[in-house]
Amino acid sequence: MDTSIASSSHFQGKPRETELVLPESHRAEKRIKFRDINSENCRKYIPALLNHPFYKEVIKTELQKLHLEGNEYFNKSQWWRAVERYSQCIQFALPFSLERIPAGAEIKRDILVVSASNRTQALLNQRLWETALLSAEEALKYNPKHVKSLYRKAKAFEGLQDYKKAFLILEEALELSPNNKVIKDTVDHCKALHRQSVTGEYNIAKLLCRPGPTPIFSDYVGPLEIRSTSHAGRGIFLTEDVEAGKILMVSNGLAFGASERDDRGEQYSGLTEEIIFLCNSSKRFLHQVHYLRTSNTDNPRVTGEIPSMDLFIPGNDWCPKTEIEIPSWDEVWGKAVTNSFDAHRTISPLTFGEGKSELAAVNFEEQMGVIGIWGLPSFFNHSCAPNCSTLNIGRAMFVRAAEAMPVGTELTISYVSTEEIDRDVRLKHWNFSCRCRRCLHDRKIRPLIQELLDDLNQLQGKLEETGMFGLEVFEECSRLVARVEDAIRKLPMELSDREKNWVRFAFNRVYFTKLRFASLMSTKERIELLKHLQGAYESVNVSGGGSYLQLGASILKVPHGFLLLTWKSSSGLQFQQGLLGGRGAACFSDLQRKFMHSKLCYHSMTAPREYATSVRDRGRCTGEGQKANSRNITMNTRLLEDILFD
Ligand SMILES: C[S@@+](CC[C@H](N)C(=O)[O-])C[C@H]1O[C@@H](n2cnc3c(N)ncnc32)[C@H](O)[C@@H]1O
């Protein structure tokens, strides 16, 4: 008879053996054990019990106790215990609330609704969307007009990325509670997400320039398909021609874990547990995890099963019919190793103001960064000169075309920063040796420029030891830049512009250091240097923008319209790597265009020293420092907005 989920396998909590002790004076009923109250045998006694003042009181007290315990655990954020108590409460209350009980004698249904509704919230807090949905449905069975339960049911649909169902339910709730602002706002939010998921239109720039919590974006799947490749298992391909800058896909990370920046090793364990947890939250997510490559020891050429794209399209509750088990810890660990990407470069408006990044919370204690796992992006193969750029904002990863491409092109992203010299070492972790066009070129050229690379290392060593100052630094860098340019001219093979820029890129630090002495250069020399730098950055398609729109940016408009973003960190001025203007920043093409056409020459937007830009320090800035920063940031944000949206 009991159709409640309290007794289903979702809620493993054992029915509690109540502490009810029947007194001697009630020998006749002593055979009723309250823990058996749901059994057929006991149910026949229920009307008698409820009509008996003593038992009625005992039952009420017990129910209240269970419910209050649930609340207590809820308030302490002990979600699973709260779920267990609310379920016990429902299980215990149900037989006393059945319609056949004489009117007036039954336990009020409120306790059932409220327990099921609170349990729904405890499940939502754990991102257990499908179970939360069942729980909300149970609450609504007891009272179909319970506004909170309708709201929570909608939140479960939102978690399952079914935004349309979410706002339709919310509109129902709004009819019952027309002035409820939270519901109104959530309707708007879900409608916006639905629109994004269908059209693929996101106003990133505008959202980023608003202080406040990280915006939430919906997933979106553009003209893509998964196919086998000849060299790297499965990959993602275009199903139509696209222009540069087009958003091809947006995907919210499935799970995140803290990581050391350079040594991820054991950090997978945290991520592994998160993924297993996620597998419990919805069948679709379970299937998405199922299709991920299992282990980094696989032969990369072997193609795995090809999932249907429907599995990734939001609002499409299609899911393979096959029943699959939650994968084992070892299997999930292997999937985490092969498919996780850094989320260090995640940007959030936190960089512009108050508010706490969800990912900053993952990055607890002394950890330096965050790694995450995304569903569809796990099928992108790597290139060190990729044709797509990625941008992470909060949980969402945006993938955009970095160049115009015809139908059928295999899309690639870079798993590591394209700026790294030792990409090979970092890529080892994915267990393949990169043979992209840039790596093949680098291997061919390296012996020819080895002497220059050795000199570069030596110079960098000296600069790091701060064994050089002022003019001496400028002269050393100028000399090396001139030698690199000379070498490029004299190389014994014909190089394309892009290939020349790959060579320059290997020395970009020196070019940047030279740029610091802009006032010592003629205009012609400065323009040439910037042109080379821009070309170098474009050639490797520096991905994202994560590092490039950080707090405290200074915008420097240089003579030929190229832009440099600089920022201050606790360790001093960091402007060498902040560059906005390359094709790599295609994500920001609109933003970039506006910058380019702005009349600004120079704007100082530096932040106070104590506000470091690293992920680690961002989470920690409190008190006066935070206030000072907020003022500064608000000012800077306005300035940015003026430039961007005038
Ligand atoms: C995130 S997965 C990419 C999707 C993968 N190809 C699949 O079939 O599931 C990463 C794995 O793909 C393979 N891979 C990615 N890029 C590659 C490349 N440029 N060359 C060779 N193998 C690559 C490697 O086996 C790597 O561990």
Structure explained in plain terms:
This protein has 646 residues and is an alpha+beta fold. The chain is 45% helix and 10% strand. The chain folds into three domains: 5-160, Serine Threonine Protein Phosphatase 5, Tetratricopeptide repeat, CATH 1.25.40.10; 220-430, Beta-clip-like, CATH 2.170.270; 433-534, Up-down Bundle (Monooxygenase). The protein has helices at 40-43, 46-51, 53-75, 79-93, 110-125, 129-142, 147-159, 163-176, 181-199, 204-208, 268-279, 283-291, 329-339, 358-362, 423-427, 437-464, 470-490, 497-506, 508-515, 523-540, 589-597, 615-618, 623-645; strands at 220-221, 224-228, 234-238, 247-252, 255-259, 341-342, 369-373, 381-382, 388-393, 396-401, 410-413, 554-557, 563-569, 572-574, 579-580, 602-603. A hairpin with a 5-residue loop joins strand 2 (224-228) and strand 3 (234-238). Helix 7 packs antiparallel against helix 8, helix 16 packs parallel to helix 18 and helix 17 crosses helix 19 (508-515). The radius of gyration is 30 Å and the shape is elongated. The structure holds S-adenosylmethionine (SAM). S-adenosylmethionine binds next to strand 3, helix 13 and strand 8.
